[in-house]
Design a protein that fits this description.
- The protein is 41% helix and 9% strand.
- It is built from six helices and eleven strands.
- A three-stranded antiparallel sheet has the order 10-9-11. A two-stranded antiparallel ribbon has the order 1-2.
- The longest helix has 47 residues.
Amino acid sequence: MNTLMMNEDQLNLEKTNRTPNSLRQEPEKAEAESQEQQLLEPKKQQATAMQCPHCGAENDAEAMFCATCGKPLHMSLCPHCGAEMEPDADYCEKCHHYVRQDVCSFCGGHLSGNEAFCPECGSPRGGIVCPVCRKLNNFSFCAQCGTPLTQEAKNLMAEVEKSEDYREMMSIVGDYMALDDMIPYTSDKDIVRDQMNRQLRERVLTLLAKDRGVENPIIPVIKKELLSKDELAERKSEKLKLLSTILEKLSAPSQPSPVQARNYAMATKPMGVRLAWVCNFKHAMHSSPCGCAKPQLGGKWVILGNATSAEINDDK
């Protein structure tokens, strides 16, 4: 009995002796844990932060868009080739496929399933073959020759053609094409030869008219100017400068729908001049807005002039 009581007294004494040390160690341990947590917190934040793939700025892990440049932080993958794409892009510039299954590429209408034709515009989801150049297209205008392929595209063309800027642009294009068909003279012999040809033409037409009983025929004068090589090059350069000014005025503004942006740009494209489409998305040069992943950001037609189409390498 005495032995048990003594053991209990010893245990109580040991507990009493340990209590002050434990009380002193607990604040020290808590302070050490707090300091360790403070050291680990920046590393934890850095590990969970999302780095913008466009500008490199750090963003919260839950963020969808960069707080610095405003661009999307998460890229999507093309369902056809697996290439990285902007999440709001509808066209893959890597494999050249339209990727949206819920939006009609011709009119922008909503698609709910595996419809063979768009319920709004009636266009086939497999594409339309251009009746002029036979190219298969997924958009309302032929990317190769510019022919409007849907009724909506034809209506848009009719509206654009009423524009004063468009009519002025086509007048300049007509003048440029006439100059482009002109053969410059290279010597005084060419001028003499041209005068002789004019006189011969007038003599032949007069004789033919007299054979028909016309005594004093009026022969229309050819209003064709003979220019030297340098004069012709200068005239063509002036026309191209005027055309560039008009194209700048007709540049496509930012639009909510990429389908509408493509249609407007193709409707304002003048035929007969070598052009390229420069987009605002990444300032790349495309053969047309049909090769741009985000034409809704805007862009403009630019004149290639004597440059080769090798400069257009973004949608080949």
